[in-house]
Structure formats: structure tokens, C-alpha cells
Amino acid sequence: MNDPLVARMREFGTTIFAEMSALALRTGSINLGQGFPDTDGPAAMLERAASAIRDGFNQYPPGPGVPELRQAVSGHRKARYGLDYDPDGEVLVTVGATEAIAATILALCEPGDEVIAFEPYYDSYAASIALAGAVLRPVTLRPAGGRFAFDPAELRAAVGPRTRAILVNSPHNPTGTVFTRTELEEIALLCQERDLIAITDEVYEHLTFDGVEHIPLATLPGMRDRTVMISSAGKTFSVTGWKTGWVCAPSRLIRAVQTVKQFLTFTAAAPWQLAVAYGLSHELDWVARLQADLQAKRDRLTAGLAAAGFDVYRPAGTYFVQTDIRPLGFADGLAFSRELPSLAGVVAIPTQVFYAHPERGSHFVRFAFCKKDEVIDEAVSRLIRLGEATGTPA
Ligand code: PMP
Ligand code: GLN
Question: What separation in Å is there between the alpha carbon of 239 and the centre of ligand 1?
Fold first, then answer.
């Protein structure tokens, strides 16, 4: 029988996160693959969700989201970034950042339009672009000076007559790069010269380290009016299972995104929205502590991976660390990641699956450090044993 799946989705199969988390469960390995914390978000925020359910917030909320959350998002954008978004018309609540990204691309891209994204890229970008019948134009981030960066000339060359939008994810999953003001200025200039829409994925906006500042592209001159800014509660408050995100943009762009969003899900779940509104208004100190804790965990895991023999790219943000496996005597990250449970009892994510040019990332493997210290330590000691077994110095 023919594959019933539409042709444009056939290359996508099962996500790497599903595959690797299932592998971790099946083998009882430590899961440093899929990025989800193993501790809960702020207790009062969790209680707010429970009380919302008990208090009867269990029917459809308004399509754009509950007013409390739209107001909290607007207040947070203003206080943190000096950005003004009208809670009535410029803020849209979505089912996680994933729905926001899909709805934005489906709303703004005609079949054949091109969307630029920096590779390696979060896997839903390519799938959403394909669903829209649009075309992904990758621009590769390459190691330079201990971080991953793009070549401005390559970015410029990727823009053509059909380019509609550029997807900008900073802090960047999976490389941990936080774009500098200079890099963002390059992107902003290009957007204005070539009349492009910027779609910014800022789900790790709070998770930067060593005082590195996250700068939203929309704060650069001329950018607010052409930027669709996407965030999510999942990473900020360690509630990835709540799938509550939001879009901020000028009203004409929000209207377009909402037109699509209303037929994907109509609206997002009610209780989480009230709880996230509470979190944005009352729990930012908790988030600051999370950021500090994650910085220490980053140091813990990067030191351990280096001791095991990996080449380590120290991330400036997110909760992922990118490694090069070649010093351990391996070359193919996908094969390595599939073998790692039996070699060491650890699960990681092969970065090559996030590339349009997999050969450019074949030797990179991503590890997550949003885990308890003892979990990181146990994973590290297993990986050090692997490093010793493959002959690299511990
Ligand atoms: N973008 C990036 C870069 C991510 O890492 C993730 C995973 N959290 C998402 C989007 C999806 O976020 P959500 O779970 O809110 O849909
Ligand atoms: N964002 C998470 C990661 O990169 C996982 C998201 C997912 O499972 N789809 O690990």
C-alpha cells in the first residue's frame, strides 16, 4: 500500500526527541536528550493551576487567550524589554511555542515562499515550513571562537526574490549561542533592506549565563513592526508539559496568525493560562534563581564532558551543551547516540538531525543539563568510563 502521509511530510518520520526519550525508557538510561527539567516549577504557580481547575476555569477561554495572561505578557514585555504590546490585539496565547511557530508560518507564507533559518535548527521549523508548502533556506552556524556563529555574507546571499521571512532563535537550541547586538543588527538591516518578516523564537529568553544579555530583535530600530516575537512558559517556569506559549506582534500580523491558530486549536487550555499569568507577575525571582542554578549545572556538565574527552562548546544560553565526539574516536553522532545507551547508559541528541546539510553536523551531539546535580554527576561518571574505554585521557 502507498504511504497515506502527504508527500511533503514524508521525510519527517518520528521526532528525534520521541525516539531518544523512548530509547532512554527502554534501556533505563539517564536521559540527557530531550530538554525537560526533572524538577518542578514554582509551587505557588502550580497551586494556581490546581485552584483554577477547582474554581471552574474549565471551559473554552477566549480565542486570543485569557485577559489575565495577555495583560501579564504585555506587562512583562514592557518591564523587561521596554516593548509596548497592546494586550487586546497585539498578544496571542498559543499551545506552546510550537503552535505559535506553525501558525505564524502557515499564516504568512504562500507556497513557494522562502524562509531562512539558521541550521542546526529546532526540528519543528522545517516541518512547519514544509506544511505551508514553503521552502527552507538554511544558513549554517559554524564554530568560531568557541561559539557557533553565522557568516553575514552567507546570510545575505541566502535572501532571494521569494524570501518572505527569517526565523531567528536566540538563545539558540541546540548550539547555546546567544546572538550579539552586532549579529542582530546584521539581521535587522537585511530585514529592512529586503522587506522580510522576522519570526523570533525566544523560548530561552531568561536562560542566559555569565551576565550575557538576551536582546529581542524587536527592540532594534525599525524591527517591532516587522517582527513576530514568540515565547513560551515551558522553559522559563520549568513546565514544558503545560504547552503554553504566546505571540507578540503588531495587530496586522497577530490577526493573520490568529486566523490560522483558531482553526488549529481555537484556543489554549484555560487553567495553565491563569497559572502562567500568575508566574509572569509573581515568580520572576524564582526564574532568576533557575537561571543561576542552570549556570552552575552548565559548568558541572561541561567540566564533566571535557573530562570524558569530548570537545565542548560552552553555551551562553539555553540548557543544552554542544559537543564534538571525534576526540573519543567516533565520527557519526546519530550512530553514536543510538549506541550510547549500551555503551554508557546515557541518552543524548545527535545534532545532525537539525541540519538541512547533515554532513555539516555529523560529529556534534547535544546534552541537556536541566537535571538534578546527582543525575548529571552519574551521567558524567558513566561518560568518563566510556572515555577511558575508548582510550582518551580522563
Ligand atoms: N523552540 C525551541 C528552540 C525549543 O527548544 C522548543 C522546545 N521547548 C520549542 C520551540 C517549543 O516550545 P513549546 O514546548 O512551548 O512548544
Ligand atoms: N525543546 C526540547 C528539546 O529541544 C524538546 C521538544 C520536543 O520534545 N519536541 O529538547
Answer: 12
Per residue in 63-97, pLDDT tens? 999 999 999 999 999 999 999 999 999 999 999 99
Nearest to 323 by CA among 364, 289, 373: 364
Cell numbers standing for residue 296: 552552575
Query: Three-state SS for 39?
Result: coil
**179: number of CA atoms within 13 Å, CB side?**
28
Which runs of consecutive H residues, i.e. helices, occur in the chain?
Answer: 16-27, 43-54, 67-81, 96-108, 123-131, 152-158, 181-193, 233-236, 251-264, 270-282, 284-308, 333-344, 373-389
CB 16 within 8 A of CB 123: yes
Site to probe by mutation for ligand 1, drawn from 172, 229, 232 as the one with most ligand atoms within 8 Å of Cβ, is 232
User: Per residue in 152-164, pLDDT tens?
Assistant: 999 999 999 999 9
pLDDT, tens digit (0-9, with 9 covering 90-100), for 298-307: 999 999 999 9
What pTM, to 2 d.p., does this model score? 0.97
